[in-house]
Structure formats: C-alpha cells, structure tokens
Amino acid sequence: MSEESHTSRPNPSAIPGAVVSRLSLYLRELQHLIATGKETTSSSQLGRRLGFTDAQVRKDLAHFGHFGHPGIGYKCVELIGEIRKILGTDREWQVALVGVGNLGRALLGYRGFVQQGFRIVMAFDTDSAKVGTEIEGVEVSHLSQLGEVLKAKKIELGMVAVPAAMAQSVTDEFVAAGIKGIVNFAPVTLQVPEGVSMVGVDLARELEQVTFTVANKLANLNDQ
Predict the structure, then answer these.
(1) Which of 49, 111, 188, 208 could serve as a FRET partner for 76 with CA atoms 20 to 30 Å apart?
(2) Which domains does the chain have, with CATH numbers?
C-alpha cells in the first residue's frame, strides 16, 4: 500500500524555530527542482543539496505528517503544496511596510515576496516628499494614518524598516491596529505582547555569522 501525503497541524509553540527555518529551505529547493524539470526527490537528495542529513529532513517533516511514497520518495509539486500549507503561504498575505528609505524601496521592489505569497499593499513614511507618491506601484501614506488604513484594508502583516529610534513606536502602532505578525529590519530588539509574532532581520548580524567562521578558519591556518 502506498503512503499518501497527510498534513497535521501541531501547536506552533511546540515546533523549534530551526525546524520552521529549514522548511523554508526545503520549499526553495523543491521549487528549484521543479524549475529544472525534476518531478520527485528523496530525503537524502534534498538533504545533500542543503547540507543536512536525510534523517534530519525526515525528522523535520515528521512533525507535520507523512509525505513520502514508497519507491518514489517525495513528489516535488505535492510536497511544495504541503509545506506551503504548513507555513500558511498557500494563500496570499497582505503586508504593510513602514519606512521607504533605501531599504524600504528595496523591499518594495523585491519580486520574490509575491512569488512566495506576500504582497506589500501599503507603505507609510513621515517624509512629505514621499507621502502621496507611489513606489513600485505601492501607495505611500503618512504614518499618522497607519491604524486607520490597516483596519480599513484588513492588512495582516507588518514590516518595520525605520531607524532604530523609531522602531518600537512603529511596532506599538502595528500592535494597536491589530497586526499579529511583524518583521523587523531595524537593528534593535523590540517588545511585543503575547500573541504577536515578531521576527528580526539584522543584515549586519548575518554578516557577523559569516565573518566568525572566516576569521577563525584563517586564524587556525596561521597557527599551523
């Protein structure tokens, strides 16, 4: 008897963040495989391409159900659908962005968001030269209108791309408007109440993870 795909929905708090992060990697790799004409893959192939063991891949997916087919492995299109369902991206999410400086403009211009189920539908700033304009087809409103617009348009997610000194107040406004998920690009730790999901993206910190490895490898080579 073949094993059919089946997705279960565990309590999000019971799933380690690292597992969710790897799901996103599996999704991207599966999408790449589809683009190159591959219809099926296995846990060993998927793990090898991403630097994980096949056991790790199977363990991560087992948190959410059974997805393999004996003698076939994983059907790429099918597993993409299941992972998107797990991640909640089997539908489109509307996003509001606060801050349309250099980083904000880059975020507005990034086409990958739409491909993965996210659409920035409104942007906010305090610069009078930007308010009332459109950037990458997205209308820019004054920050003072944030709560009113979010509630009227039923926007669900927020992005913070403002200087660190403004980030907490912007986050507080998002929370007051009913936003339950926030991505913070400001280089500061923000406080949110229970029930609001916050993810920080610190690009300098990511570079520090790279330099840690590079610097210490060089140091070890020099010591030999």
Answers:
(1) 111
(2) 6-87 (1.10.10.10), 93-203 (3.40.50.720)
